[in-house]
């Protein structure tokens, strides 16, 4: 038997940014009698050039986006023909989310396997605002900052998902800010009405939600002062008066 064959590739599907100091991507393989020219390469996002290369009997090299970010002393095995097959990436950040391909080859044979890893960041400043633009309508605004990958926001009542919701998504310094908003007529709402905003990052299998109670009626003030960010958000959707209510954050697991 002269063929090399990858028997297992271990790439964490989802990791949360900042939770662990390093992550190991492993690529185990079998080999035959002829191991001349045995090389292990890792590629990122199907790029033409590898981000890691280990030629047996030489020192491993990190390149491209992973230059300076791989622990080159890490050993996955004591077998001298498998020793540096794995990637130990230090301080993984969101920019290394994507497909990883391990290629093991000799002068005669080659095998490859690919798996995806997502480095995700939960949202910050997740808020649900109900904002009176006049006595007869309410603007329901859900917003979140600092998430990665891009989050999906949905607005609903306990009975149904709300129609006519507008969405905005911005990428700022590698993190996403999202806004979902809709204007509703008080006459169409029960009293009190409940609104639910759900934030999902599907690729990270992550979801949280906020809930708030709204009482239809004329514009009024509340003792709770809106934050500067809330005021900016309200101004962005053209509101005139405020009716801010306390929201509840609920994790969905």
UniProtKB/TrEMBL annotation:
Gene3D superfamilies: Immunoglobulins
Superkingdom, taxonomy of origin: Eukaryota
Protein's name according to its UniProt entry: Ig-like domain-containing protein
Organism: Parnassius mnemosyne
